[in-house]
Amino acid sequence: MRLITTLLISVLLISLVSVVFITVKSQPVVSLSKGTGSVGVSLSFTGAGFLPTDTTCSLSNPSSNNLIASSSCVIQMGTGLTHGGFTVGNVLPGQYLLQVTGNQGDFAQTILEVNGGSQLSPSHVDSRPGAGVSIHATGMLPTDSTCQLSSPSSPNVILPGTAACVIQLGSGVANGGFTVGNVLPGQYVIQITGNQGDSAQTIIAVG
Question: N vs C: which end of the chain shows fewer Cβ within 10 Å?
Fold first, then answer.
């Protein structure tokens, strides 16, 4: 009986020595302050589960270079926690992939839904040659410092030398105006373009 007990204890000890401990490592995650946004809007993000040895991080978009107009990313070493923010660039509405990457190569991804862009509205939707039209635009990039007016459909609809456009840096709001040129009755596209490459369009009817 003592021999059997000794053998059982020996087998148990061998089994315990043979146990392999497996550590399950959680994957880093990142979440946005809002799941949706529009051109020129600033959003923030937080992340967790990054490597404790990370000292820096960055935000990127693998599918579109224009999605992120400006960004910042900070990681607290030893915690795996990160946070930052970015401004949505001039892109078409749709879903875009955002990726936060630590300097050790670890990363996390999330989806941003862009639901609109900059908007331009004229003071008159029905004008005649020689009439003055004022414009108001919102949602331009906050990094724009200058803007200009043009017409992709007919350069003559804006009387040369009459176009003016002013944008307040950091606001994304622009105001301006022009005089309707000598063109035939019809509908014409008016476009405002910021110096960062973002733009907005509207239609005026010349009667």
Answer: N
Domain annotation for the chain: domains and CATH numbers: 25-114 (2.60.40.1930), 119-206 (2.60.40.1930)
With beta carbons less than 8 A apart as the criterion, state whether 206 and 157 touch: yes
H/E stretch holding 187 reads strand 186-194
H helix runs in the chain, sequence order: 2-17
pLDDT in tens, 116-129: 666 777 665 567 89
The per-residue pLDDT for 173 is 86
Query: What pTM value is reported for the model?
Result: 0.54
- CB within 8 Å of 176: residues ≥ 6 apart: 134, 135, 147, 149, 163, 164, 165, 166, 192
Q: Is 11 helix (H, G, I), strand (E, B) or coil?
A: helix
Name the residue with tokens 């053998």.
Answer: 7
- SS3 state of residue 156: helix
Instruction: Give residue-wise pLDDT tens across range 34-59.
Output: 878 777 788 899 999 999 999 999 99
Query: How far apart, in whole angstroms, are the C-alpha atoms of residue 84 and residue 157?
Result: 44
